[in-house]
Task: inverse folding
């Protein structure tokens, strides 16, 4: 390999990004070319007022996800309901810490008056937990939803943000006595499709190679069948190994449906939506078919299959499953060509 492209999955141009750059540059003479792509939030900018397209995309995406996960109609409706969203980042003493201030600026520019940016480390100073508590309190919001501003929801999200210890953000918000409810959403930025797309775009910009775009419904031919990848969020729920993670996508009357064969007959129904809504919407349960699959050793097995409606390719959607013991479970899936 003569040309190297590195795509950091970092949030910003912080200390770890600098360390990565330094390490890669030590081997630059081993390649004809070396390129390091931008981290998620792009260039840092001169001061707290500097924002860019990446920061705007992330701000919109994470707010939309938080509002949706909270079961609210919109960010404006959340504000009317007295609900504030607090996104907790890591924080840093690196000069790139202004990025967090820029994200607050971006939220303000979008009119998200009930969205606040904080950090575990409290750097920059205005992002410290005690300062965020005061800011939310002064703004008059009585309900708070905490969510990580981190690519992965790991130790910081589970402990520093949502832990039961007295120094966790959840505990400190509760201890303030200023709020009626404190809820936590444990989800990393990397789970959001629009965030993933930014990383792809940054790699594309570094290489000069355009990413393959997901096909649109109107680009598929009516009545045709296509092999499509069916991706889930769980190793316990997936397409049968004999199908190599794929199903058959068909288009009829402009609508897409994918037929998938599962690993057994233990999943008895599917529901497009959340598990909490499935019981009251039995008419829309997806019923199984009996599919025969053939494995690489020549053996066959009869498993349950399902025809799943697909609204859009390359977009995550909720798909609940009902096991033979009568319990519904939430999952997120996507379909791509």
Result:
């Amino acid at each position: 390999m003569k040309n190297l492209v590195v795509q950091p999955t970092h949030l910003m141009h912080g200390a770890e990004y600098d360390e990565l750059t330094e390490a890669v540059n030590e081997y630059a003479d081993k390649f004809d070319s070396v390129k390091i792509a931008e981290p998620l939030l792009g260039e840092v900018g001169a001061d707290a007022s500097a924002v860019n397209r990446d920061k705007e995309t992330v701000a919109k995406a994470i707010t939309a996800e938080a509002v949706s996960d909270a079961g609210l109609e919109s960010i404006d409706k959340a504000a009317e309901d007295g609900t504030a969203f607090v996104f907790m980042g890591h924080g840093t003493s690196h000069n790139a810490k202004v990025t967090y201030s820029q994200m607050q600026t971006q939220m303000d520019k979008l009119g998200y008056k009930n969205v606040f940016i904080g950090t575990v480390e409290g750097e920059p100073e205005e992002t410290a937990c005690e300062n965020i508590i005061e800011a939310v309190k002064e703004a008059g919001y009585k309900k708070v939803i905490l969510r990580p501003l981190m690519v992965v929801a790991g130790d910081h999200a589970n402990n520093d943000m949502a832990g039961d210890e007295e120094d966790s953000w959840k505990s400190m918000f509760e201890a303030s006595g200023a709020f009626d409810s404190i809820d936590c959403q444990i989800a990393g930025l990397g789970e959001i499709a629009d965030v993933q797309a930014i990383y792809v775009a940054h790699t594309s910009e570094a290489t000069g190679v355009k990413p393959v775009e997901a096909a649109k419904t109107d680009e598929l031919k009516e009545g045709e069948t296509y092999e499509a990848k069916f991706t889930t969020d769980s190793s316990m729920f997936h397409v049968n190994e004999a199908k190599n993670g794929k199903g058959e996508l068909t288009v009829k009357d402009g609508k897409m449906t994918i037929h998938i064969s599962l690993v057994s007959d233990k999943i008895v129904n599917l529901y497009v939506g959340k598990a909490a809504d499935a019981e009251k919407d039995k008419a829309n349960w997806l019923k199984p078919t009996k599919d025969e699959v053939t494995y690489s050793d020549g053996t066959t097995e009869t498993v349950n299959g399902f025809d799943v409606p697909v609204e859009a390719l390359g977009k995550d959607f909720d798909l609940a499953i009902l096991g033979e013991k009568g319990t519904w479970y939430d999952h997120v899936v996507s379909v791509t060509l």
Remarks:
- The chain has nine helices and 15 strands.
- The domain at 217-336 is CATH 2.60.40.1850 (Immunoglobulin-like).
- The radius of gyration is 23 Å.
